[in-house]
UniProtKB/TrEMBL annotation:
InterPro entries: P-loop_NTPase, Sigma_54_int_dom_ATP-bd_1
The protein's name: Uncharacterized protein
Entry-linked PROSITE patterns: SIGMA54_INTERACT_1
Top-rank taxon, per record: Eukaryota
Recorded coiled-coil stretches: 299-326
TM segment ranges: none
Keywords per UniProt: Coiled coil
Species classification: Eukaryota, Metazoa, Ecdysozoa, Arthropoda, Crustacea
PANTHER family hit by this protein: G DOMAIN-CONTAINING PROTEIN, IMMUNE-ASSOCIATED NUCLEOTIDE-BINDING PROTEIN 10-LIKE
Cross-referenced Gene3D superfamilies: P-loop containing nucleotide triphosphate hydrolases (3.40.50.300)
């Protein structure tokens, strides 16, 4: 490092560690832009210079050595040599002891803009964008958040307007293309989503040799690249044990970075306007696809609920034909009333206060009104007329007057019998076991009271009903319960079907949006 740069470093850095062989200085940075919500920031080193900016984006898995590469790149820009007692380091990228080796040391997408200082190689400002490592032990969700932060960074011109290199930082010792490596490389490939072959380089770390097998792993993912650079940055902070070997390793590290810088300096920056549009469209498509997955799951859940309701409906239909036999005995002490329909009725004795005939279907031609006390009217009239007739018969031998009276009595008797024939219900031509076979002044075969003391009713107490009537009552009760349950289930099914219809309508709309996004992405990839 030339004296002028060394003096500048001492003025613009903090001593982080002092050693016998060398000391580590942390360069001071200032925040030019920061977005804490999206976890992106831009830190500046040195005073702003109006020079062309060469931008390098570093991508890679956790532990690939991006941070060490960044620090080695910084030391090379400032011309630090193996003989110097100064090593440079970025404060915000110092390793933390509380983090495991499989956890990324970088939580932010951070752009370091290093403004040109006299004595530095190349008449340019350099921007190196350090990103959180992929494949972090904190899971895929953390990777997704990190990707969103990077995409946010790349789609805003106030952060970056062009790029000269996408550096895929990959361990030179990674020779196996396993499932984890495939997933990480696939994420890197899809992260930007456009043709980046002409400014993508594979930066192999922890090696100075051409690791063909490691490059084949990258190629197997379908990632296309421009060049391969090999770096072993371990000598940067290593304590010398064998000076000759250390100098040799340091020299190889310098050659690698010089070769990389030479390539970056000759490249023209690529505008990110189309890239930004493409990334934004990719983000919209991914959001849409996440919503579609959620909708499909929601639709499947609702369909499952509908199937469950339909199963309950079938169970209810089967339940409607069942009778709860345990409730039959309960009817004997209940106040439940059975309504008799379809012309059926019962005969209720007002003397006994009970139902004599619980089930009758015979149609009555007349209904005998019940009386509260005394004998029947017809029986009383006939009795009186009979007695008068006997008296008239005796007196008829002695007097014409009495004879006339006897004739009058005879006429009254005929009238009375005609009236009774109207009042009394005529006997059915068919022989039945019902009470209609002995209506009027005849007695009930069940309780021995006159028929005129029985009421024809269209309702019956359940306790007085027949076995079949009780069974039918329980069936009706069960049916009403089932119909109430069916109404509720049918309403639920109707509601679910309405939701399914709404989802299907949204799916149709989203399918159209997906086709539009995919068409736009293909056009942007072709530079349209």
């Amino acid at each position: 490092m030339i004296p002028e740069l060394e003096q500048w470093v001492q003025r613009n850095s903090i001593l982080a560690m002092e050693g016998d062989r060398f000391s580590i200085w942390q360069l001071k940075t200032r925040v030019e832009h920061e977005d804490t919500e999206n976890k992106v920031r831009m830190l500046a080193i040195g005073q702003e210079k109006q020079l062309e900016v060469k931008s390098v984006l570093l991508l890679g898995e956790t532990g690939a050595g991006k941070t060490l590469f960044l620090n080695a790149f910084l030391n090379r820009l400032f011309g630090v040599t193996v003989e110097d007692k100064t090593r440079l380091q970025l404060k915000d990228q110092m390793d933390r002891e509380d983090k495991k080796t499989t956890q990324s040391q970088t939580d932010y997408t951070t752009a370091y803009i290093i403004y040109h200082q006299e004595g530095m190689s190349g008449p340019y400002n350099y921007m190196v964008i350090d990103t959180p490592g992929l494949g972090d032990t904190e899971g895929a969700e953390k990777d997704r958040i990190n990707e969103q932060c990077l995409r946010f960074y790349l789609t805003d011109e106030k952060w970056i307007s062009h790029i000269n290199c996408v550096g895929l930082v990959w361990k030179g010792t990674d020779h196996r293309y396993d499932e984890m490596k495939r997933e990480i490389l696939s994420r890197i490939k899809q992260l930007l989503g456009f043709d980046i072959k002409r400014f993508t380089d594979v930066l192999l770390t922890f090696t100075t040799d051409e690791e063909v097998d490691a490059v084949k792993v990258v190629e197997a993912s379908g990632i296309e690249y421009n060049q391969v650079f090999n770096f072993d940055n371990k000598p940067l902070y290593a304590v010398r044990t064998k000076d000759k070997l250390h100098k040799l390793m340091w020299g190889l590290m310098e050659e690698s970075h010089d070769s990389f810088l030479k390539e970056i300096n000759r490249r023209e920056g690529v505008s990110l306007k189309i890239t930004a549009r493409l990334i934004l469209t990719h983000m919209k498509l991914e959001d849409l696809q996440r919503r579609q997955r959620t909708q499909r799951q929601h639709k499947a859940n609702i369909s499952s609920i509908v199937e469950q309701y339909e199963g309950e409906m079938r169970d209810l239909e089967e339940e409607a034909t069942r009778v709860d036999w345990d409730k039959i005995e309960d009817l004997d002490t209940s106040n439940e009333i059975i309504v008799l329909e379809d012309g059926r009725h019962c005969h209720y004795c007002t003397k006994c206060s009970k139902t004599c005939i619980p089930a009758c279907e015979t149609v009555h031609k007349a209904t005998v009104a019940p009386v509260q006390e005394g004998e029947g009217v017809g029986e009383m009239v006939l009795g009186v007329v009979g007695k008068v007739g006997m008296i008239g018969s005796i007196l008829g031998h002695y007097s014409l007057l009495v004879g006339l009276a006897s004739a009058a009595v005879s006429i009254c008797t005929d009238i009375a019998r005609a009236i009774m024939s109207r009042i009394r219900t005529k006997k059915s031509k068919e022989k039945t076991e019902s009470l209609h076979a002995s209506e009027g002044i005849n007695k009930c075969p069940k309780c021995d009271h006159f028929i005129i003391h029985h009421e024809v009713r269209d309702k019956i107490m359940a306790k007085d009903a027949t076995w079949d009537q009780k069974v039918n009552l329980l069936k009706e009760i069960k049916y009403e319960e089932v119909m109430g349950g069916k109404s509720r289930i049918e309403a639920n099914i109707l509601s679910c079907n309405a939701k399914l219809a709404s989802i299907s309508k949204q799916e149709k709309h989203d399918d159209g949006m997906q086709k539009n996004y995919e068409r736009e992405i293909n056009e942007l990839r072709l530079g349209k």
